Amino acid sequence: MSVPKDQHYIPRMLLKRFTDEEGNLYAYDKSHPSRGIRKRAPKNLFFKRHLYTQMEEDGTRDASVETEFLSRLESDASPVIEKIVSTARRGGPPSLLPAERDIWVAFLYVQFKRVPEMREKHKEEIFQEIRREIDFIGHFRPFADHELSVLHDEEKMERLWRNISIQSVQKPLSKEGVEIFLEKRIGVAVIRKPKPKRGVIIGSNPVVKMSHPERSHLADPTVELWLPLARDVAVSPCPGEIDKIVSLNDRHIRAINRSVFEQSTVIAGCSRDLIESLLAEETRNFRATGEK
After folding, report:
1. CA-based diameter of the chain, in Å?
2. What is the pTM (predicted TM-score) of this model?
3. Element (H, E) at 155
4. Distance of alpha carbon 174 from its chain centroid, rounded?
5. Model pLDDT for residues 148-163, shown as the tens digit of each residue
6. Helix orientation angle between 71-89 and 98-114, rounded to the nearest 10 degrees
7. Contact yes or no for 14/202 (Cβ under 8 A)
8. Closest C-alpha among 57, 59, 85 to residue 3
9. Beta strand 185-190 pairing with 244-247
10. Cα–chain center distance at 52
11. Which of 225, 188, 191 has the alpha carbon at shortest distance from 87?
């Protein structure tokens, strides 16, 4: 079986919920500002070549994380997300079945950690974990020649980090994490009358965490973790005994969009006006900060 080259870190089944009536997105890439805002099809956004393909020393490629784990998770999650979004648009909470809640928690967790920004952020942590494992093994036995060749070869160590990073994408949520998520219900925020400049955006790092500086643990009831699911719907785990639905006002929309914008390299939305408004706001904030 051929190995897929272009591997999306934001699933296309999610991106299609942010498009305009023609099925396109308006995207802006901070790393290439001269390109401006570009009209793009979902298939041409939020992907990298062989992002989840493990590279072996002999040159073989293993894309099982992409073709088996992520593909299966996205297929399972798509109807659950459709249920959340469609029910919210009708004015009701999702009321997911237990099996659907399990799928939702798994999707949210994986989406949080699978994006390039998060993998790069935790690169040094993974290297430290590798070094600790090496030190532990070294206390009990000498390293073989082929093992030493890896430890002293920068290219091989980089490949080792890459493969461990890819494997970590499918590592399950800890028992503590599962309990935290399952103890919470689902809060859905929906824009009642969406307009071109009033939509929710999607970013290359789409899961946003809103918390006080010294109260950032997910178990804290004041912490908000938001994932935009459509141009008019965003979802968050929330405390309480029942699922909730609320209307997104302009302040909430700006807060979510600003957070997605600040932590993402690429952002996209349903209209050029929406992305332009965010860029204009960022420019105003920069000038105001500069004046101070």
Report:
1. 67
2. 0.84
3. helix 154-168
4. 18
5. 566 666 677 778 778 8
6. 110
7. yes
8. 59
9. parallel
10. 14
11. 188
